[in-house]
Structures are given as C-alpha cells and as structure tokens.
C-alpha cells in the first residue's frame, strides 16, 4: 500500500486482502475490525518493524505488550509524541538552525538569482503566480506537464546534505524515505517540515496551479511527504513507478561529480501510453524537476559517485478526501487500455504483472 501509510503506523497485515486501492470505507471497516479484535500485529509484523529499525520500532515493541481496543489511539499518541520529541531534539543539534526553524524564511541566498524576488520570503509573503515563476526560472519543458529549472544555489544543497549526513551518522533509528527507496531519510522527521511547507506554498503550489490547471487538485495542494533519496553504489537504480502524490518536486542535491542516474519519464498512470518513453532529465546539483505524481518515472543506473535528491510529494487533502468518498475518480482512473507495445525502459518489475512476459517478447532473440 504505497503512500497510504507513510508513517508505517499499521503493521503489514492490516492491509492484507484490501487490494491495490481500498476505499475509505474499506479502510474504516478494517480499522473497526482491528479495534474490536486482539492486537493485530503478528510476529511477522513485529519482525518487520524491528528489522527496519525505524523510529516506529520502539512503539511497535511496546505495543506488543498490550491488547485491547485502545491500542490504536494510544499508539497514535505515542507515535506523534515520539516524532515531536525527535524534531525537538534535532532542532537543538542542527548544523544550520535556519533550515529547521519552526517559522522559517526561504533565504534569498539559498535560491538562484532569477527566483530570489519571487520565492524568497516567509509564510506571510504572498506567493507569486505560477506563470511568473515559470518565466523567471526559464523552465525547460521536457514533455507535457514536466518542467526542469535551476532552483537552489550549491550552498543550500551543501547545508541540506550536511543535515542529512549528520542524521545518518547519529545513532537515531531511521525510517526509510518510502516503500521503494532504502537509502535516505524523511526530512519532515528531522525538523524540516516547516521549510518544506514554505517551498510548497511559495513555489510548488503556484506552479502546479498553472501547469496542471485542468486537474481537480490544481489549486489545493496543501501538504507533503518530503524526503531525501540516496544512491551510493554503482548500478543503484529505482524501478519505474508513479508517486503517492498529486505533484512531485525533485531537486538534485549532489554530490558534485556523480555520473548516470538520470530521471526517466514514461506516460501517465491510467493513460494508454503509460509505458511509453517520454523524456529523460539529467540531474545536476541545484536543478529541479516538477511532474505529476501519476507520471511514470524511475532512476537509471548510477555509474559513478553518489547522488542524493530532495523529493517533495505534494498532496491535496481536498482531492484525496473527495476521491476516497467516491465523489471524483482517484488519480489515474478509469484506466485506458494500453494501445502500443510498452518500451522496455518503462517496464516495472514491482508494478507490472506482465514484466517478464514483456521482456521475453521483446528480447533480441525473440520475435521482437
Ligand atoms: O531518484 C530520483 O531522482 C527519483 C526518486 C523518486 O522518483 C522517488 O523517490 O519517488
Ligand atoms: Fe518517484
């Protein structure tokens, strides 16, 4: 269940049998069943939580001592309190307190000169229009709805990497950034959520309102899951997928000198050309790419060095609630039948049931 439970609050068996896209009603019914019954974490779940060594692991093991209908509420409270404590501790030891301030300012010197007048500021400064932002940034259109532009100065990328490195070097347990990437960290957990809120409000939301004006969520992006992904070994790559977001901002932080690891785009989830090649964005330090969450993408092999990117999965509560209650179709539905043979680069081992069949069909010795 990619994206529904980013905090890994529920054990894996909570989602068993609920399928790919459970409705809110199904989730609520499962929650009621769970609350009525014994503690739903089975031994396998507990192992999963412990093995991941994440920030939720302590709650999971203490939970395993209790049974009864209140466990869910207590666990939620324990988890929220635990997270606040971590953020609080992190704020005290941050290398750059400005990055993790509760009421931060997007400082002009962190941004490329062209965007400073439009993006720098605090939460009270009125956001600029998406059109003005695109023009000022001289955004490069890579394909329909996919743009790339220089955003951060190298100094800002270094500051952010220094926080990520310090967190990694600390003894604090880490949750992986999402269900696909193991390397990296959730920046909201180390005090960066207010700064990411600002980035959402002053940059991502106005750009999305302009670029995706026909989408039902265009004007209502209001929260995010933000993380750093790290690719460290030659051959590290990321399988083709679409994000648990309405729109995604992906910014390369470094480290200067890596090669490979391009961001490859295919069609949109639910569309007839979903698995057709569309574009490749080459990552460069400080450069951002903005795309729809349902735009299929993946990362090519890293050929040398180390690559870390900041990813902001921007979401709309209004859109998600309307889709969950059945007032509008969830993103990418209804699915259109695929018209053309998929491109090999756009196949996903994890997400495509016909992955092996397609590869065999398109192998050089096959009928092609
Ligand atoms: O590695 C990248 O640039 C892409 C990462 C990504 O798509 C994701 O984490 O959702
Ligand atoms: Fe992604």
End-to-end Cα distance, whole Å, is 34 Å
- Helix and strand content put the structural class at alpha+beta
CATH superfamily of the largest domain: q2cbj1_9rhob like domain
What fold name goes in the CATH topology slot of the largest domain?
A: Jelly Rolls
H/E topology pattern: HHHHHHEEHEHEEEEEEEEEEHH
User: Rounded to an integer, what's the Rg over CA atoms?
Assistant: 21 Å
Mean pLDDT: 86
Tell me about the biggest sheet?
Answer: 7 strands, antiparallel
Query: How much helical structure, as a percent, in the residues?
Result: 25-40%
Low-confidence stretches: 48-69
Q: What is the CATH class name of the largest domain? A: Mainly Beta
Question: What's the architecture of the largest domain, going by CATH?
Answer: Sandwich
Q: What best-fitting shape do the alpha-carbon axes yield?
A: globular
Count of DSSP E strands? 13
Number of helices: 10
> How much of the sequence is in beta strands?
15-25%
Distinct compounds present: 2-oxoglutaric acid, fe (ii) ion
Number of domains: 2
Strand order of the largest sheet: 1-2-10-6-13-4-3
GO molecular function, one term: L-ascorbic acid binding
Organism: Emiliania huxleyi (strain CCMP1516)
Protein name: Fe2OG dioxygenase domain-containing protein
Cofactor: L-ascorbate
